[in-house]
Design a protein that fits this description.
Length: 469
């Protein structure tokens, strides 16, 4: 996680690593995501194979970062990485550089049998430990707390023993070449002939040398001479880091590949605002390490293209298309059903008429069912504005019911006269003809709960009757 109150600003330098004890870059997933050609890495342990892998890795990331929107203002390299910086900066034609690299084969370069050892101290203390030992020199001044010595195996072992007695750790490196020492001068003929075939030219991006701690010259002859000096003189990477920071105004140092260069920069610029990050890490995948580097640069004011770094989602496998089975047409509501007259289409026409039979109207699935046609009204007849025999009904012939004869007209009924009541307290005479319809409650004529007189039978029970006298 990176957090800064405000961006650093300043310029950006791309650093190209050289020979490393452990060098295992992860590039394939980055190339596949960005649609680039995969870098050809031998991943061998021989000197030439290590050198070719370091150069190929640096060139690969030098093309990836500008594609993501991160441009370099300065290029620099460590050991053989300086030559990769010259190729990436345009100081050599790309076709000529590719042809030269393709001509190199493992074991094709003759080198002296000299041993390297990394020490946990600065160059000044390492030189003090070389007192009285011939054939051992300081070949790399990497940072205030690390340097590298080179020489014959016996002399290097003696240096390690001396420093170990004073509490300084050291380790022998797994390759031998004699680069950056005066002992490599007898082998310069093959290098001069190879670089003479490469026509140098002014680069598109400034390239700084770890031999002079300054920018490369523009004259072709001076460039060739500096390349040879780089093989005979020590690597002054600590001084180069200080010059880039103080003179060139570099604040962001991006290492193009795995290696120890970010640690060298951190140790050299300790206490000063800066950023040192690598585009590849041994414990991360290629995409994760690249995203991590872009996140650090974004926090310092850069604007990487995050859309290019998003993982591509694989498309799910497409199942074969299946045509859905045709569904039966749902019955339409009754107000939309056709009312065409005619016999039932599901059964042959019968001589007898048909009638409606009520049936279930709604099912559990709330799909409306049609009524059953029973055959009483005849084909084509309507009931409530609907056809008797729609296509979804069931019908069967039934005999017609005989109609009831209408009753003969009789004499008109005489209306019943209204009831007349005798005032309370007065008893009407027998056979007075008073008609009372009181059946409950006191009678308004007699004050009783029911009629008690009859015109023919005299007093009646108190239950009353429909015809009071």
């Amino acid at each position: 996680m990176w957090f800064v109150p405000e961006p650093l600003g300043g310029r950006t330098a791309f650093l190209f690593p050289g020979l490393e004890p452990e060098f295992a870059p992860a590039l394939d997933d980055v190339a596949d995501l960005l649609g680039r050609e995969r870098a050809r890495l031998g991943r061998g342990t021989e000197l030439m194979e290590r050198a070719l892998d370091a150069i190929a890795t640096g060139r690969f990331f030098a093309g990836v970062l500008p594609e993501l929107g991160i441009e370099a203002d300065v290029l620099a390299g460590h050991s053989l990485g300086e030559w990769a910086a010259m190729v990436a900066g345009g100081m050599y034609p790309r076709d000529a550089a590719d042809a030269f690299l393709d001509s190199l084969r493992p074991g094709s370069l003759k080198v002296p049998d000299l041993v390297y050892a990394a020490l946990g101290c600065g160059a000044e203390r390492a030189r003090a430990a070389l007192h009285g030992l011939d054939g051992v020199v300081v070949s790399h001044d990497n940072c205030p707390h690390q340097s590298v010595v080179c020489g014959d195996p016996a002399g290097v072992s003696a240096v390690l023993e001396r420093l170990r007695s004073h509490g300084v750790l050291g380790q022998e490196l797994p390759f031998r070449s004699g680069f950056h020492t005066p002992m490599w001068e007898p082998y310069l003929g093959q290098v001069r002939a190879a670089f003479a075939r490469l026509p140098p030219r002014p680069g598109t991006v400034p390239v700084w040398s770890a031999t002079t701690c300054a920018e490369f010259p523009s004259a072709p002859e001076e460039v060739r001479e500096l390349v040879v000096r780089h093989l005979l003189e020590p690597v002054r990477f600590r001084e180069l880091t200080l010059r880039l920071y103080e003179d060139a105004g570099v604040r962001s140092f991006v290492t193009l590949g795995p290696g120890s260069l970010p640690g060298f920069v951190e140790d050299t610029l300790r206490g000063r605002p800066h950023l040192a990050v690598s585009t590849s890490a041994p414990r991360l995948s290629g995409l994760d390490a690249l995203r991590r580097a872009c996140a650090a640069l974004w926090s310092e004011g850069h604007a990487p293209d995050w859309n290019r770094l998003r993982p591509r989602r694989p498309r799910p496998p497409q199942a074969p298309l299946r045509r859905p089975a045709p569904r039966p047409a749902a019955p339409r509501p009754r107000h939309q059903r056709p009312s065409a007259p005619g016999p039932c289409p599901r059964r042959p026409a019968a001589p007898g008429p048909c009638r409606w039979i009520s049936g279930p109207r709604w099912s559990a699935s709330r799909r409306r069912r049609g009524p059953r046609c029973g055959g009483a009204r005849g084909p084509g007849r309507r009931r409530g504005g609907r056809s008797c025999c729609p296509p979804w009904t069931r019908c069967w012939p039934t005999p017609a019911r005989p109609r009831r004869p209408s009753p003969k007209p009789g004499p008109p009924l005489r209306p019943r006269p209204p009831a007349r009541h005798t005032p309370k307290g007065r008893e009407g005479p027998r056979g007075c003809g008073i008609r009372c319809g009181c059946r409950s409650g006191p009678c308004p004529a007699y004050g009783t709960t029911g009629c008690t007189r009859s015109p023919t039978a005299g007093p009646r029970s108190r239950t009353g009757s429909r015809s009071c006298p």
